[in-house]
Each structure stands twice: as C-alpha cells, then as structure tokens.
Amino acid sequence: MKAFFIAIGNLFKRPATVQYPFVPTYKPDDYRGLIVHNPELCIWCRRCEMACPPGAIVFSQAMDGTQTYHYNRAVCIYCGECVRTCPKPGAIVQTVTPASPALRDENINNSWAETVKQALESRAAYMAEKKRQSAAKQQQGGENPS
C-alpha cells in the first residue's frame, strides 16, 4: 500500500530527468573531452602511449624513422593520463569537445585492432632494420681496420 501512495505522490512532482533535446545537458568546467595531438610540438617520446590505460593511443614507425600518431576515441576513457604524462606542454591536450558516437559503418573496433597490429609490426621491422644496419656497420669496421 505504501508503494501505491509513493506512486500517486510522484505524479505531482517535477520529472527527475533532463529534457535533453530542449534543454542542453550541463557540462562542468572540468569536463574532459577528446584528445588532440599536435605533431609540431610532439617530441615523439611515446609516453602518452605507455600511460594510456585502455590503449587508445598507438604510434607506428616508418623505415625512415618518422612516427605516426593513432588515436581511437571509442577506446579512450578520457582519463587525461596521456596529457599529464606528456613532457612537452601542448603536444597532446584534452578539449571540451565530446566524442561523436562510433558508427557501425566505421567498424571502429576491428579497424583499431588492425591499426594496433600494423603499428607494432612497423616498430618491430624498424628495430630489426636498425639492428641489421648496426651489425653491418660493425662488421665493416672489423674488416677494414684503418
């Protein structure tokens, strides 16, 4: 019987939900949104990648040594650890812009797994090439004593 009176009382109270389409949702001043990378300021130390708890940031490496930053907004938990860890101010920042929803057409999860796999392979290939070059240089130095 008590539940019945509570239900009747709730009929005359204001709704507890926000009327979203008509009233914008409140965002606190310290709202954390999308991560933005500035390649001009980045020193390519990969600290953001190592600090990211869910693995939303990964770097791939070309054979010429250049690195490419990859970010997945659907994996990111917006904790800001990448921003706090970055030694170069402004290289990676967190905006107040909310992430757009991931769409099925983007195939964001499967494509991210492939991106991570390719990035790790590119870094392994780069390191193997560097080791090969170093060994070749060492071998050359041993054969031609000057």
Any overview of this molecule?
This protein has 4 helices and 4 strands, in the order H-E-H-E-E-H-E-H. The model has no long low-confidence stretch (mean pLDDT 89). It is α+β, with helices and mostly antiparallel strands. Strand 2 and strand 3 form a beta hairpin. The strands form 2 sheets. Strands 1-4 form a two-stranded antiparallel ribbon. Strands 2-3 form a two-stranded antiparallel sheet. The chain is elongated.
Largest sheet: 2 strands, antiparallel
| SS class | alpha+beta
Number of strands: 4
**Mean pLDDT score:** 89
How many helical stretches? 4
Major beta sheet, strand line-up: 1-4
Coarse shape:
elongated
- How far do the termini sit from each other? 101 Å
In what range is the share of β-strand residues? 5-15%
Q: What does the radius of gyration come to? A: 25 Å
Low-confidence stretches: none
What labels describe this entry?
38% helix, alpha+beta, elongated, 146 residues
Short description, anyone?
The chain is an alpha+beta fold. The chain is built from 4 helices and 4 strands; from the N terminus they run αβαββαβα.
Task: Provide the fold topology.
Blueprint: H1 2-10, E1 35-37, H2 47-51, E2 57-61, E3 67-71, H3 81-85, E4 92-94, H4 108-143
Antiparallel strand pairs: 1-4, 2-3
